[in-house]
Design goal:
single chain; 175 residues; alpha+beta; Rossmann fold; 2 domains; four-stranded antiparallel beta sheet; 4 strands; 38% helix; 18% strand
Amino acid sequence: MGLLEMEKNSLLSIDDISLRFGGLQAIENLSLSVQKGTITAIIGPNGAGKTSLFNVISGFYKPQSGSIKFNNQEISTSNTHLRASMGLARTFQNISLFPGMTVLDNIKLGAHSKLNAGLFSSGLFFKSAKDEELNLRKFIEEEIIEFLEIDHIRKLPVAILSYGLQKRVELARAL
């Protein structure tokens, strides 16, 4: 597969990104292509710029140069909310779940960006909004929870789970 063909099939394409914090060059001329259906790892020592790269991809930092495309759409200047609505999500090093809520409730909180119904139609329980929420819950329960093998803990409060299971719940919420 040629370079041009790879570019067309890229889910995420980063071209010549640079990020600087004052005198510190965090990322310099980085290019990366992630193909659909693949798993890609970013590895490196502390201070290598891995977290900075994820912050640039997710929109928390704006690079000084370069471009980012997600599903062949330029997102370099898009805000974090638009990126999330496109399906670009991430988790953080520190867990940010609601400990008093169940696993299922925590996961459902992350799904709000996927719903089309607005506050008005949801608040009045219009049939279309209710159907959309039921379909999303079915997707969460049948796809995401099953994929991450957390069905046995779905009704438990997050506070009693191990760190590893909490990270899995956070990943489910991002998905």
